[in-house]
Amino acid sequence: MRNKHFALILCLLLATSACEYSQPSLAQKVVLDVNGRQMTAQMFSQELAYRLSGQDALSAKDPKLLKMIKEKISEEFITQVLTEDWAKENEVLVKAEELEQQIRSIQSNYPDDLAFQAALAEQGLSFKAWKDRLQATMLQKQVAQKIARKAASPTEQELQAYYNENRTRFSVGETAQLRQVQVATETDAKTIEEALRRGKKMTDLAKKYSISPEASQGGNVGWVEKGLTEVFESAFQMKTGQRSRIFKSPYGYHIFEVLGRKPARIRAYSEVKPQIKSILMEKREQSLYLAWLETQVRKSRVFKDQVFIEAIKVETKIQ
After folding, report:
1. pLDDT of res. 95
2. Nearest to residue 258, comparing CAs of 157, 151, 176?
3. How would you class 102 by CB atoms within 10 Å of its CB: exposed for 0-12, middle for 13-18, buried for 19 or more?
4. Of 315, 314, 317, which is closest to residue 67 (Cα–Cα)?
5. Which pLDDT score, from 0 to 100, does residue 317 have?
6. Which of 122, 176, 269, 280 has the most crowded CB, counting CB atoms within 10 A?
7. Residue 200 pLDDT
8. What is the model's pLDDT at position 9?
9. How far apart are CA 289 and CA 293, in angstroms?
10. In the chain, where does DSSP find H-type helix?
11. What are the beta bridge partners of residue 9?
């Protein structure tokens, strides 16, 4: 629970320490103006208080944290206005039904509406303010996606070059292919072990008795990398075809067999090509979006009162 309230005061860095946040001339002073859309000192302070609400009283006054959050507020306000202006010019909008669907999706994560409203109250947000933020976020995502469509796909030569330059990124440790039967009790595990001694197949036993997710696939776990799963670590001292003893884990009791082994290796280009393409496309889309944003800033009227923003101070009052 949030047990503190941050009261923000606006203080110009003058010799005198006296400062009144309530002065209209200070509260209504414009600190950001983007194409006629303005953010006053009061609005900036309210946003700053909202973003500091999760911090303790000491952190809320940390100069580095304050500087970072103030810069983020300024950048996001400029980006939001430029995005909304461009979206209006290019007939990009968030449809009402899409917004409502997203709202319902988020609300479904809470037990009931009361819990949802309590979460908003703890953040110091009204439903309308929260909805406006959500809509702005969805619009920015739509604009970014529209800009990203102009990104050209990397060529085969570019994909291959990235692979050659970053081969170590695609290394994998020693792996073992395993099949297992997982049961709830040691008694059940011993029964399975006895059935295997009598010649029953692990595939059939897994389908019939195993409680693990891969039971329907005959207990085939797939390829497991060394050092990642404690219960299967002994597999890397076993031979292909060898069966384990009973192992206990937080999930139950396991008996597994080794179906295959592979040494540590660099994954082949053909295996990682889709991953490389995704990496390069993400970089291109991000670069394209940043270039678009820079162009919008150059075309726009952007005013920022950096001196006044730096002069905004924080006082904390514990409630």
Report:
1. 95
2. 176
3. middle
4. 314
5. 59
6. 176
7. 94
8. 46
9. 6
10. 24-27, 41-52, 63-89, 96-107, 113-123, 127-148, 156-165, 186-197, 202-209, 269-299, 306-311
11. 313
Q: With 0-12 CB in 10 A as exposed, 13-18 as middle and 19+ as buried, what is 61?
A: middle
Q: Quote the tokens at residue 305.
A: 């009162």
- Asked if 17 and 311 touch (Cβ cutoff 8 Å), the reply is no
pTM over 0.90: no
Rounded to the nearest 5°, which phi and psi values hold at 151? -70, 130
| φ/ψ of residue 5, rounded to 5 | -125, 135
Neighbours of 233 (CB within 10 A): 14
Residue 260 DSSP SS3 = strand
- Rounded Cα distance between 175 and 107, Å, is 42
At 296, which amino acid appears?
Q
Report the distance separating Cα 102 and Cα 223, nearest Å.
37
CA 108 to chain centre: 19
How far, in whole angstroms, is CA 80 from its chain's centroid? Answer: 20
Q: Please, what is the Cα angle at 240 between 234 and 241, to 5 degrees?
A: 100
CB 79, CB 32: distance < 8 Å: no
Q: What is the mean pLDDT of each run of 10 residues along the chain (319 residues)?
A: 45 40 70 95 88 80 91 96 95 95 95 93 90 95 94 96 95 94 95 95 95 94 92 94 94 95 94 96 95 95 93 70
Q: Give 85's contacts (C-beta < 8 A, 6+ positions apart).
A: 35, 296, 300
CA pair distance 78, 63, nearest whole angstrom = 23
The confidence score (pLDDT) of residue 293 equals: 95
